[in-house]
Design brief:
By secondary structure, the protein is mostly beta strands. It is built from no helices and five strands. The chain is 0% helix and 31% strand. The chain has a three-stranded antiparallel β-sheet, with no helix packed on it. The protein has a two-stranded antiparallel ribbon with strand order 2-3.
Length: 71
């Protein structure tokens, strides 16, 4: 999973014979690039991946405090 920013290019769908770009996938919002299709071929407008919204709570390796319980 990779972080992406709104407007980042995610993929291209190309014509087999001419290699013309038929579609370009752009991240609709900041988030995590997730759920990539396993199929090597695609049609225009086919769902190929997802970008999920996420909130970074801390940098990698930083330990978070456990939430307090009311018990």
């Amino acid at each position: 999973c990779d972080e992406v920013k709104k407007g980042d290019q995610l993929f291209e769908v190309r014509d087999f014979q001419t290699l013309d770009i038929l579609e370009t996938g752009i991240a609709p919002h900041d988030g995590i690039f997730y759920g990539i299709t396993q199929f090597p071929t695609a049609k225009p407008d086919q769902s190929l991946c997802s970008v999920v919204k996420a909130e970074k709570l801390a940098e990698a390796g930083v330990e978070l405090e456990a939430p307090r319980t009311l018990l």
